[in-house]
Amino acid sequence: MPNNSDLLSAGKINGVFGVKGWVKVFSFTDPRENILLYSPWLLRKNQQIKEIKVVNGQRHGDTVIAELAGIADRDAAAALMGAEILINRLQLPATAAGEYYWTDLVGLAVKNREGISLGVVDHLLETGANDVLVVKDGDVERLIPFIQQHTVLDIDLSAGSMIVDWDPDF
């Protein structure tokens, strides 16, 4: 079993599909059906983690449906509802230079080019035009567009820091 820091949340089982044990999945991957590529899944529910292999699956409208090994009827599938789908970080493909997984950005200390601390990346938002960093500093929340070489000047994952071109009063 991988170490907890190596586990990433990839989605959640949020329903059942049909009578043969298939589950509906809310996927955090892009595109959504990519969650099916990361078998086996680690399902976390009620503080317990269970490894399960994805046998089959597909996109179904705005959701994903999946057949899981050992889950053969609707009741067994219903017992998995609410389970968080975790994957091992090692299952992800390597990123190219200048590309980052959102999970790698969360927790980075953010300073502007003058060295003024703006807080820590709490999470990111997808807006369509560009992703947005949500940087929190106590009660202050800043929304900073994630545009590399424009607002985001430098990212140093090993140092846990990010330099941005951003006015602290904005």
Secondary structure elements and their pairing?
Blueprint lengths: L6 E11 L4 E6 L13 E5 L2 E5 L1 E7 L2 E6 L5 H5 L5 E5 L13 H4 L3 E4 L4 E10 L4 E7 L2 E6 L6 E5 L4 E4 L6
Parallel strand pairs: 8-13
Antiparallel strand pairs: 1-2, 1-7, 2-6, 3-4, 3-7, 5-6, 8-9, 9-10, 10-11, 12-13
The helix/strand order is EEEEEEHEHEEEEEE
Would you identify the CATH architecture of the largest domain? Beta Barrel
In CATH, the homologous superfamily of the largest domain goes by the name RimM
How many structural domains are formed by the residues? 2
The total count of strands amounts to: 13
Which percent band covers the strand fraction? over 45%
The CATH class label of the largest domain is Mainly Beta
**CATH-assigned fold name of the largest domain:** Elongation Factor Tu (Ef-tu), domain 3
**Mean of pLDDT:** 93
The major pleated sheet works out as: 7 strands, antiparallel
| Residue windows where pLDDT falls under 50 for at least 5 positions | none
Strand order of the largest sheet: 4-3-7-1-2-6-5
**Helix/strand/pairing class, anyone?**
mainly beta
Roughly how many Å is the radius of gyration? Answer: 19 Å
Count up the helices: 2
For the record, give the distance between the C-alpha atoms at the N and C termini, rounded to a whole number. Answer: 44 Å
Overall body shape: elongated
Assign a percent range to the helix content: under 10%
